[in-house]
């Protein structure tokens, strides 16, 4: 029952994001548009490139979707609404999301197309840099909770959310989440103006539908992780716990779409430099600050 509820919440959130994405693209708010677009993809021919690596080409969209669902499996919507409350849940989130890189590299390499391959290698450099800004803020969050259990991390924020306790960590994690989901302005792997879609370019029909669903699901999973680690999870007045988790998750996910809509794409050289020169030192500073707060503030 828990599995079904979490999966329905995940799919419903992805559907809402697809509606908002369509509104930003066309200026029209149509709740049925994702359904029509999905049916249109299912009705189109799934074209296979001339000389693909067939295993990589077929597996990449499915793997990306599985990775997003696995990450969501250890994130609680309520104290008793979580698929797997692992003892190392926070680390599992990071470990699962690492396979986003594998899926995107496969999507770029599999079709044997120049644009897709360039997009895949772009994402390799992007994730190697920004994965540090995922795991280092999680380290500071676990330090405060004195646990890697995600329900315990939410419980530690009952009096004060981590966005207040460690705002620098929140900003770094939020930026890294956008880079991991390769949403604009971090959409270098799929840059339509430069690469004609990049890793998405050679996919059509059902495969493209699965790939787009996987990308939206990944945004929801990263937004849920942000909610669990920094926004107090299910904590909130009046409404039931699961409602607060969904409201916060959707708010973060929608903000990721809106922020990317109004910012220009960042050059790959600048993207790398900002992370290595500025992001990682700030993440280390955040760990030091949280450590000092734990020692000084009872």
TrEMBL record:
Subcellular location: Cell membrane; Membrane
Coiled-coil stretches noted in the UniProt entry, renumbered to this chain: none
InterPro entries: NADH_UbQ_OxRdtase_su1/FPO
Keyword list, A-Z: Membrane, NAD, Transmembrane, Transmembrane helix
Main subcellular location of this protein, as a coarse class: membrane
Topology with respect to the bilayer: Multi-pass membrane protein
TM ranges: 55-78, 90-111, 123-143, 163-182, 242-263, 275-297
Family of the protein in this entry: Belongs to the complex I subunit 1 family.
The protein, known as: NADH dehydrogenase subunit H
């Amino acid at each position: 029952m828990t599995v079904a509820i979490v999966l329905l919440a995940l799919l419903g959130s992805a559907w809402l994001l697809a509606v908002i994405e369509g509104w930003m693209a066309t200026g029209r708010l149509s709740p049925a548009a994702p359904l029509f677009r999905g049916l249109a993809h299912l009705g189109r021919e799934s074209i296979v490139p001339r000389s693909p690596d067939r295993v990589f080409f077929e597996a990449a969209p499915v793997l990306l979707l599985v990775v997003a669902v696995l990450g969501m499996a250890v994130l609680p919507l309520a104290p008793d609404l979580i698929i797997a409350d692992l003892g190392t849940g926070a680390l599992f989130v990071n470990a699962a999301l690492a396979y986003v890189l594998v899926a995107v590299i496969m999507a770029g390499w599999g079709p044997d197309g120049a644009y897709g391959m360039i997009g895949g290698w772009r994402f390799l450099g992007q994730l190697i840099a920004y994965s540090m800004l995922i795991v280092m803020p999680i380290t500071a969050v676990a330090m405060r909770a004195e646990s890697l259990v995600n329900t315990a991390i939410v419980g530690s924020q009952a009096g004060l959310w981590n966005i207040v306790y460690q705002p620098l960590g929140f900003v770094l994690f939020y930026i890294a989440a956008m880079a991991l989901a390769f949403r604009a302005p971090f959409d270098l792997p799929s840059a339509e103006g430069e690469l004609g879609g990049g890793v998405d370019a050679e996919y059509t029909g059902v495969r493209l539908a699965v790939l787009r669903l996987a990308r939206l699901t990944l945004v929801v999973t990263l937004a849920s992780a942000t909610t669990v680690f920094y926004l107090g999870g299910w904590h909130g007045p009046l409404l039931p716990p699961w409602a607060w988790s969904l409201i916060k998750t959707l708010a973060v996910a929608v903000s990721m779409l809106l922020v990317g809509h109004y910012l220009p794409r960042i050059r790959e050289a600048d993207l790398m430099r900002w992370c290595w020169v500025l992001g990682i030192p700030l993440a280390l500073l955040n760990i030091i600050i949280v450590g000092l707060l734990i020692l000084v503030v009872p």
